[in-house]
Ion transport domain-containing protein (Stephanodiscus triporus), 1279 residues
Amino acid sequence: MMGSAAVDERTPLFRLAREEDDHPEASSSATAPRDDDDHDDEHDRRRVALHLFLEARTPPGLLYEKFTISLILLSVSTFVLSSVYVPEYNVGSNLPYECDRWCDALWFGNRRDNALEFLGIGSTSVVEILVVGIFSIDYLMRLYVADLEDPRYKGMYGRLKYIPTFFSLVDLASTVPFYVDSFLLPNQDLAASNYLRMFRLLRMMKVEGRYDMAISMIDDVLYAQRGILGTALFVGVTVWGVLSSFFYIVERRNPDMIYCGAAPDCDDVDASLCVTDEWGIVDCSAAGCDGEGEVCWNLYRSIVSSGYWTLIELFGEFPLIDQHGFWGRILGTFTAVFAVAVFALPVGVLASGFDDQIAKRRERLSALLGREEGGGDDSGGMTAKAEEDVLGDESTFRGQVYNFLHRRSSPSADLFVLFTRVLIVGCAVAFAVDSVVDSNGGLHAFLGWFQLFSCVVFAVEYSLRMYSAGENPKHQGIHGLVRFALEFLRIIDVLSIVPYFVCLIFFPGPVPSFFLLLRVFYFEKCSDSFTTFDDILMENLDVLSVTGFSAVLLWIFFSSILYFTERDNPDEEVRGYYSTIPNSMWITLLNLSGESPLAHYSSVGKVLQGIIGLFATAIFGVPIGILGAGFEELISRKYEETPDEEGTTDPSLLNRTTVGDFQLFCYQFVNGVGSMAATTFELSIYFLIGTTVTIGVVQTVNGYENVGSGVEWLAVIIFTIEYILRLIGAGADPDFSVSSNGFTARVKYVFSFYSIVDLLAIVPFYYAYANPNSWINAHDEYLRMIRLLRLLKLDKYVPSISLLDDVIRLKREILAVAAYAALTLWFLFTGAMYISERNDHAMEVDPLPLYGCVEGCTMADRYSSYFTSLPLTGIHLTGDFPLVQYGGLGRVILFFAVLAAVGVVAIPSGVIASGFAEIVESKVKSKNTEKILSRNAGDDWFDIRYRQLEGQPPPPSPLGPDVDALQIKVKEFLDGRVDETTGEVSRTRFSKIGRVLFISLIIANVTAVVLESVPEIDKAVGNAVGNFFDVFEAWSVLFFTIDYFLRLFSARKSRDSLYSPWMYARTFFGIVDLITIAPWYIQNLLVWTGVNVSQDQAKIFRIFRIFRLLQLEDFLVAFSKLDNVFRATKDILKATGLMAVIIWVGTSALFFIFEQNNPNFRECDDSIPLLGTKTKPGCFDFETTAACNAFYPDMCSQSAFTNMPDTMYYVAVFLGGEWGVVDFTWQGKLVCMFLCVAGIALYSIPVGALFDSFGAVIGLSDKDEEEQEEDIVLESILK
């Protein structure tokens, strides 16, 4: 493995150095000069000394090591900053001209005419010459003593073997390009050679053995997860290929997908005027965009192009969220709800593998240190307790102050604490309110004086605390006082008081007030949330150093290479964000955290984005996840779960004497008990709920308002009958009738959760019918949304939402601590973002009429107050960045949000999700016998029957022994001969050739589908009869047809088909085989019968060939086990899936109600002014889009939330953590914040259940137990 190789490179060095340190007398005797070869011994001693010097095993060597690290950081820093001083990529900035030829010669080497021009070696700098010179000498010295590192490198031939080793290549990559540029190609400016300077960062991995682990860990993860990772990749690639093909079919004619951004004169093109020919080539000359070649093109013009955009959406990002057509939104919804979870399996496997490796290494390192887990948890508590036990001298003023402030020894002290807490809350409220009041008004002045008074109180309190701290022996003297001043809350005191007064003088406005927000950390005393961060850092220091170093390497490398690939991108937006490496680092940081705010990359950039999304995000996210997981672990360790006693109704308490037979009958009937009629009635309720919810959704679409009205009437009548029966039967319902008479039980039922839901779903319908001119009837969209509450009725049968109170009780203490930490960070980052962006007018954004801005809008309009900043910051803290147009300070703030806050803010939602899963699972186990998730989890009758047939011979053919023999030969040709004892498969040479041909033909067919979708290739081949693609497809179908019938013929000898041809046809493999050939026969049958099949229709038939990817399932089990996965988790999926649907549909209804007329999403014809007059109103002057269309017929439209299906598409994307739009109304922002806090986590629980089940069912979750040489590396770290 690569990790072992890395260790091997280091091991001889450590061994040699250890022997020198541990046995100096042996070393001296071994190197003592002898008379016969004094010269050779002296030479050897010098080489050993040089080797130890280079490996930092001597004091001078340690200094040299620090010096080389400084050189590396200097070189990388000058490389990054040099991009800021390149004039051609920083147009409009004066900064490139601030560095003259002497400055450039010293630091950057951007210009050929700098002060080093006389050298004649091209553009270079003093720093570069110095660094390359020292590293070149360093490399030659390492080559000289290479045999001391490993005897294999001895002699000339051994030195040649040393050159291709990892660190040797790093050294060469960081120095050789300089010599090539300077002496071989002095007149060429090679960007690639400049980029190779970044490899000098890898030299830092030589500093300590633990940095070798940064690379070896990747190898260990890949090796340990090789089985399930291969399967997950197959699933992911197949889903990607199939969805890419379908997106290509539905979007390739969509005019909204036509892109002209790469053409400098075609920024704003009316795509409706563009023409797409039969091959898919776009011509926009009629729209005024003309030029050589295809100036504009459809983003889904081929499966290759579609593959990139589909990949982005499978990452959970939807940059084209508002450009998809109807069928594209259907596919987008499917992608957001289901496919994203399946495609995330490879990244999840990698992340899980890193977690496992980190846990293993931490355990072994802890064992080597002799450290007991949790040993540091009590120290903080002991210190606080000790401080409380210290009594100040009441005879002195200092002692009295100490007892008052530190010990809180009197009721007045408690009142003072309460007073300061009120001031803290008041300052926070004042900061938020001050952001929306008139800066010249009296309220603004009052809030300012209140904050000043509060800060004076805080300053006096801090001074008195510092003055009286010496009463505690631990804080006496200078050192004790410094130790006290460095405590967490004392640092908060300084950071909130000193900057406030400084900023009050030099930066008046909201900036001083922001620092007072820091005092919300004082509520930390109630939870000790943030004081545990030092424990987290110390416990995870070794792992954070490894993973953090890897993350930084990835960040800088990808930022640099994307700078070179995208700085000349024809898309102005992309080019602007990659104009310098610091700019590139901002967007790359978001990419590595799982975001894709930009999408129109170059071809190389698209490949890099795919690599980042597939693999780099898993590695980059490890240190962030460690901080979040460490925080959760510590608070979980401190606060145990406290489940309540589950309320169970004792049937003996039911007063049977007062329950009549009719009441009991009604109760049993509505709950499906006692008769077939009752069961049928219960099932009809299920069906009606689903039907009426679907009708309510469809009726929001323009033109379908009256669809299903008769069904709605029928449903209301049946629901009314159900409600009456439940009301009558309440006297027999144990939930209401215990210790109650019939009347009291019915009163309890009327005010119960389910009764209220029923009444809200029924009563408005009758009221609207009885009062046709009422407000409800005039606002029937609200009535339709109320009907969606019927989904909550399903909670009676499958408890889901009603379990949330159980979850909160179970996790209440952990949740309280985690929520405090998350909310504190949310409020603080909101304040910081408000301060940084409230005056950010640099970058323009779309019109925001709802916020009072129509033209020239900027980020300052979005962050105009603390309250408008709150939901935007909440979205960012969930890890999503739909907005990236931030200034320098905003980027720095969000950098820290990505590093630490994102992990911590996610903890409360994670606690809720895990608690919900625990309760659902416990309730499932209480109803059923406990099931252990294993390879047999989710097995159905087929799997059971398959195991029963083990060892049984196949049945004989009714056609005689000759057919028997032929079936066996065909079976062995197709699938090989299976040894029943060992399970090994052996194949004849003929069978192996057939298998290779089968795989090759599958790959060739998939490749043909992809190539045929490329317009240029399709046009070159043509559509004439007998063209290459048609002939190839015909021969392929013939081959697959023969294969299909051969499998049917030999199925009686195949245990996989339960020895039945009919069973084979119904299996996953049989269905896939049929799907891959049937469309060709259907298409040709239509042609033969005279039906005209257009080219577009023919493409739909041909695209089904992509399903031949699934035929590779014969070689890697994955999809055929998905039904087992669903069955294994069906009980949990019932509850969590219902809750996810309720959240999805419920929040969609709220977003539809609140956002359907949001002017921020309104678009009007160019002839309509944005703002008008009384006689001619503008686009944004109307309260509703319908009113706009009434005045300007068919000239106004909403880009989002136009109806419930459209809204459900957007919300499905939101629930995946991707906020494609954010400029909501204030009501919509409340819904947005709910989803950020809890909705997204609850919605994702079914996905987590499926992921856990997937690995267990396919039986590939076993860990590899070989962990050789790891302890050696860990011991070297300790040395």
Remarks:
- The radius of gyration is 36 Å.
- The longest helix spans residues 888-927.
